[in-house]
Amino acid sequence: MDSAEQIVVRRSGPLEGQVTVPGAKNSVLKLMATTLLTDGVTTLTNVPDIADVAIMGDLLAAIGVSTAWHPTETRVLQLSNQGDITPVAPYELVERIRASINVLGPLLTRCGTVKLSLPGGDDFGSRPINMHLDGLRAMGATFAIRHGYVEASADRLWGADITLDFPSVGATENILTAAVYAKGTTTIDNAAREPEIGDLCNFLVAMGAEIEGIDSSKLVIHGVEVGSLRPVVHEVVPDRIQAATYVAAAAITGGTITLHNARPDHMEMLLRRFADMGLIVEPIQGGMTVSAPERLRSIDVATLPYPGIATDYKPLITTMLSVASGVGIVTENLYPGRFRYVEELQRLGANISTDGHHAVVRGVERLSGAQVRAPDIRAGAALVVAGLVADGETLISEICHIDRGYDDLVGRLRNLGADIERV
Ligand code: EPU
């Protein structure tokens, strides 16, 4: 990946056509980490070809699981675990990807010790792991923090009743993957319910784990014998955030598109709010069709854990509101610092003011193209969408962030009629 590359977008649309949505980054990375629990070759299908999958592959290779794309079938990834595991996750790899924290639960429950570089913050703020550690501690693990590493150990993990202070995605996943080999039953109350966690549960059950309450906020995990999970073939759930990106692109350009391999049932709240903005959404077999009005209407929106509006949708929504009629208020409830992309939207002529975790967006008629930079994955994609309705040319730099989570965003948008290229 060349960091000097940029994306150039020119005013386009209305977008028309069909797009196939890739598999979810925030599922596949966790499924990859979970292969640490089983010896043999696991096959994942519908895998997005994104930088984060390669980075997770590097981390797993350092620990002892090799990853390779299938030689003939596209988007199929094979992970081979021969049982020769070194439970150490070094700094150089962990700092590249937040989801590296997901090796903690599987390694601890399987090996009894783990040395993991402490994950740092993100561009949108500090990202603590206290709930991960508290949950695993309740199951019998002990932790020491030394020289920037978390050193965890547990002769054996035991089932425990754990109530999370907040339905954290990562904490739910780490406790869940640790609990499958714990002795006895673990309950996770106030568990996160994101569709990617449902995908992880279904993957584990196919491997032989015993889990009740899948997709609910109370997961009950009955531990099975250590080493008894079997490798499986599993299809990664479609990416609801990438799907929303194409919906936003159609919406902002007044277009009509059909999304395949999409799960509108995983995006219900968002699609309801998009309908309030004037979008017509029709579920079809395996996807949905969306048609946009000439101009979107403003709404107020607040981010919440699933089934609420995901924080990852917010840069897209803010971008849509930038050119909608009226005034919209966006409230961020997960990451207070996640408004940095607002300055970039302002460079494109958006009228947005922020105060703490609120942004007030006054819709303008048109944006105007400018040089901007992608501050993170989702904000980067939102700036690409903004460029579709900006006069002239919008140049987006630091697109390595976009490549972390988007599988050929440029190609897919171009197929829908966007005037866009990588330079
Ligand atoms: N939190 C704590 N303590 C913890 C864990 C979380 O205070 O031990 C707080 C966080 O600081 C944050 C909130 O809880 O304020 C939510 O964090 P959560 O653990 O749910 O998020 P995560 O697992 O770190 C995943 C996604 C993010 C997505 C969030 C929220 C992955 C790899 N990342 O992060 O996705 O924004 O859930 O839905 O799955 C992205 O894909 O670009 C991305 C940032």
Describe the fold and architecture.
Helix 1 runs parallel beside helix 7 (about 195-205). It is built from 14 helices and 26 strands. The protein has helices at about 25-35, 50-65, 90-95, 105-110, 130-140, 170-180, 195-205, 240-255, 270-275, 315-320, 340-345, 375-385, 400-405, 410-415; strands at about 5-10, 15-20, 40-45, 65-70, 75-80, 90, 115, 140-145, 150-155, 160-165, 185-190, 210, 220, 235, 255-260, 280-285, 285-290, 300, 325-330, 350-355, 360, 365-370, 370-375, 390, 395, 420. With about 425 residues, it is of the alpha/beta class. The strands form seven sheets. The protein has a four-stranded mixed beta sheet. It has a four-stranded mixed beta sheet with strand order 2-15-17-16. Strands 4-5-3-14 form a four-stranded mixed beta sheet. A hairpin with a 2-residue loop joins strand 16 (about 280-285) and strand 17 (about 285-290). It is globular, with a radius of gyration of 21 Å. The longest helix has 14 residues, at about 240-255. The structure holds uridine-diphosphate-2(N-acetylglucosaminyl) butyric acid. The site of uridine-diphosphate-2(N-acetylglucosaminyl) butyric acid has 25 residues, from helix 1, helix 5, helix 6 and helix 12.
Quick structural overview:
The protein has 423 residues and is of the alpha/beta class. The protein is built from 14 helices and 26 strands. Helix 5 (130-138) packs parallel to helix 6 and helix 6 runs parallel beside helix 7 (195-207).
